[in-house]
Specification:
Blueprint lengths: L6 H20 L11 E5 L14 E7 L2 E5 L2 E3 L1 E5 L20 E5 L19 E5 L21 E6 L5 E8 L14 E4 L19 E4 L3 E7 L2 E7 L8 E7 L9 H6 L3 E7 L4 E8 L2 E11 L2 E8 L6 E8 L7 E4 L2 E6 L14 E6 L2 E11 L6 E8 L16 E10 L11 H4 L7 E10 L6 H11 L3 E6 L6 E6 L6 E2 L4 E2 L42 E10 L7 E10 L4 E2 L8 E3 L7 E7 L6 E2 L4 E2 L4 E4 L14 E4 L2 E3 L13 H9 L3 E2 L12 E2 L1 H9 L12
Parallel strand pairs: 28-38
Antiparallel strand pairs: 1-7, 2-3, 2-9, 4-7, 5-6, 8-9, 8-27, 10-11, 11-12, 12-13, 14-19, 15-16, 16-17, 17-18, 18-26, 19-25, 20-21, 20-22, 22-23, 23-26, 24-25, 28-34, 29-30, 31-32, 31-35, 32-33, 35-36, 35-37, 39-40, 41-42
């Protein structure tokens, strides 16, 4: 029997197939498998929302052909004086001062940190959601209750496998940011016990409880954590103390003395996604800071050591008698040690992960150090003590050791110190940065050690995220032309490329990642290249600062690009001519500030309408905001950016000269003092500074 289709039947069949294909496409859901993990983005990654109040931003997922609002949280931060948490107090001879280093602090109106000076969702603020709330890719529609044109699509790609999408918008005022959900709860009497503001001594007892569906954690004083229950287990309190001490047998410094000395709360904030608790003050390390991030199935603890030279420091979880019978495992003790109050012969090689498990539940701990130690500075060791009768360290808690375990840092070099305000520390070659991060994951009872190893693998392989404006119909490409005085060669009418390899050493000195991730720019972009083998025509990195075209010229976003010898630019992500601007959409008006590490920044004096092809010539004085005095005459009819602004703040002044004096002559270096960009620091760099002394950018451009 032969089956024949009429034209009408065939057309109906093809339409049905197309409908099914489209339905399957838009019914896509997230395939991510990290329910415990949050995703944190900064305002710099969501530039089109910079004019929003934090409370106006909402999140959505698209799943099974429909939109569903998801809870998000926005936490404000500010770059502040490191002494700000202490207010007007003088601690260890230090107080607030413009010369103090700046650190990014979470803002809290209840503490001396106060409100964020920028009330909008600015570059250093954080937006956070849970990966378990991701969905599939949208069909191009928009949910109800949001403002058109404010959508960002966040693609979440797991290098271990899995893909998901989250969408954020500005609400029209009809939506609540928490979407009617909360994954973590917080209760405390800390405020009634003078926990706010800072104090100079005396214990402030408290009862602070953080509860989620997975665990309960409690504090009885600022540095004292002494209750931990796992909901999936028998809910017994398995924690005696989260301990910090110098070494076994020494009771002069520990979490109790830390809590009794000068202290300052930085932030205590509860939201639908996480609870933040950040504080500083640890005896003679008054700037030592600890921040807790409590999520539904994760407790992250970040400790930043800032103290004079000390012999050692240990970070240890000492379990309670309720942990009796649990098994302790790490990468150095894979067969497991029974926690029973009887000392075991343990391998004390430090491990990147630990685990305790039993009917009480399972706790996996992943550990990471963030430091700039060099060889000979420290020795990292593991710690384990399971002796209830004769503990090695019994300064605090119940006086017994039940599976007490963690990490020890022994300082082999007595010159090493971490206090940024101690003169002998910062003026010596011993100054170092040190941070200790712990990720605590509660789980069901009696699981295998592979659970902790899997968490360790996930920390090693973070989610790759891509943020783009939603539903853009065309990309915006910006081409510019600009010259840097220090690299300009009047004979050729172009710039030299000595940093890229035509220097006297014949090697590339350019960093493969953008260099503006520090003050005064503090740009968090991830632009990078694999190498410069195919980019040998590169002069240096420059930063495009995209702004609103009218006062107050609010920031839209930033992007680092590669400046070429002829003054053009290359996008380091696409390796194509120009810059692909994802922070603006076709038809949007914008302006440009051009920034460099050691040349005086300039701004364009006219707005552009975003399109597939925008061009801007910064070698023409009529195109620069503030007039011809903002550019230096290079000859050949070319104009360029003035050299000599070593600190990048928009002015060539005595501060730049001071930086030059502190920098020794050097060869083969990538440095802000190298103003002629030849890979050397010499008198020619000083000459550029001297020639351009007192040159400054217009006020709208300066930091």
């Amino acid at each position: 029997m032969t089956t024949e289709f009429t034209i009408m039947e065939l057309r109906a069949f093809l339409v049905a197939i197309a409908f099914l294909h489209c339905y399957c496409c838009f019914a896509q859901t997230s395939t991510l498998n990290r329910p415990e993990a949050p995703m944190v983005l900064t305002g710099a990654e969501l530039p089109a929302l910079s004019s929003c109040q934090p409370s106006e931003i909402v999140g959505f997922k698209y799943e099974s052909g429909d939109w569903f609002q998801i809870p998000i949280q926005v936490d404000e931060r500010s770059l502040s004086d490191i002494m700000l948490p202490y207010g007007n107090l003088t601690i260890s001879g230090h107080q607030q001062d413009p010369s103090n280093p700046k650190v990014v602090l979470y803002c809290d109106p209840n503490t001396n940190v106060g409100n964020d000076p920028n009330s909008n969702f600015d570059d250093d603020d954080e937006l956070v959601f849970m990966l378990k709330d991701a969905g599939g890719v949208s069909d191009g529609s928009a949910p109800a209750g949001v403002v058109a044109g404010t959508c960002h699509e966040i693609t979440l790609n797991d290098p271990l496998g899995g893909l998901g999408y989250v969408y954020v918008f500005k609400s029209d005022g009809s939506l609540m940011q928490d979407a009617g959900q909360s994954y973590v709860t917080y209760s405390s009497d800390v405020q009634s016990n003078s926990g706010f503001p800072a104090h100079t001594g005396g214990l402030n007892p408290e009862t602070t409880v953080i509860t989620t569906s997975a665990y309960t954690w409690e504090f009885s004083a600022e540095w004292v954590s002494d209750v931990f229950r796992i909901s999936a287990g028998d809910n017994s309190d398995i924690l005696d103390r989260h301990k910090n001490f110098f070494y076994d047998g020494f009771c002069g410094r520990h979490e109790d003395t830390f809590s009794e000395a000068e202290n300052a709360f930085i932030c205590v904030k509860a939201g639908p996604i996480r609870v933040l608790r950040s504080y500083m003050g640890a005896n003679s390390g008054p700037l030592t800071q600890r921040t807790h991030f409590f999520y539904e199935s994760l407790h992250k603890i970040q400790t930043d050591l800032r103290v004079h030279s000390i012999p050692a420091i240990l970070d240890v979880l000492d379990y309670s008698t309720a942990a009796n019978g649990m098994t302790y495992t790490n990468a150095s003790n894979l067969t497991g040690l029974t926690i029973d109050g009887l000392q075991d012969l343990a391998d004390l090689t430090d491990s990147p992960w630990e685990m305790v498990t039993g009917t009480q539940g399972t706790l996996s701990i992943v550990k990471r150090l963030q430091d700039d130690f060099v060889a000979g500075d420290v020795t990292i060791v593991g710690y384990y003590d399971d002796s209830s009768a004769a503990p090695a360290s019994d300064c605090t808690g119940d006086g017994e050791a039940w599976g007490s375990s963690g990490t020890g840092i022994v300082f082999d070099n007595s010159a090493v110190c971490t206090d940024p305000l101690q003169t002998t520390c910062i003026n010596s070659n011993g100054f170092r940065l040190f941070g200790n991060v712990r990720y605590l994951y509660p789980d069901a009872p009696t699981v295998s050690a592979s659970t902790a190893a899997d968490y360790d693998n996930k920390v090693n392989n973070p989610i790759n995220k891509t943020v783009v404006p939603c539903f853009a119909t065309a990309s915006v490409n910006l081409q510019i032309e600009a010259f840097l005085q220090g690299a300009y060669d009047s004979a050729s009418g172009s710039m030299h490329t000595k940093l890229a390899g035509t220097n006297m050493l014949g090697v590339n000195l350019l960093p493969t990642s953008q260099p503006f991730n520090r003050p005064p720019w503090n740009y968090a972009g991830t632009e990078s290249v694999a190498d410069f083998s195919s980019l040998s025509n590169t002069v240096d990195w420059i930063l495009l600062d995209i702004r609103e075209p009218t006062p107050p010229y609010a920031p839209i976003g930033q992007q680092a690009v590669l400046l070429q010898a002829d003054g053009s630019i290359i996008d380091p992500v696409t390796l194509t001519a120009g810059a692909t601007l994802n922070m603006v959409t076709v038809g949007q008006e914008y302006g440009i500030i051009l920034r460099h590490r050691n040349h005086v920044d300039v701004a364009g004096n006219m707005s552009l309408t975003a399109s597939a092809g925008n061009n801007y010539d910064f070698t023409n004085t009529s195109n620069v905001f503030g007039g011809g005095g903002q550019l230096v005459n290079l000859g050949n009819g070319d104009f360029g950016l003035y050299g000599g602004d070593y600190d990048g703040n928009g002015e060539v002044n005595f501060d730049d000269f001071s930086m030059y004096l502190l920098q020794s002559s050097a060869i083969g270096i990538y440095s802000e003092i190298d103003c002629d960009l030849d890979g050397m620091i010499s008198v020619s760099d000083y000459n550029l500074y001297k020639e351009n002394f007192d040159q400054s950018a217009v006020g709208q451009v300066q930091f």
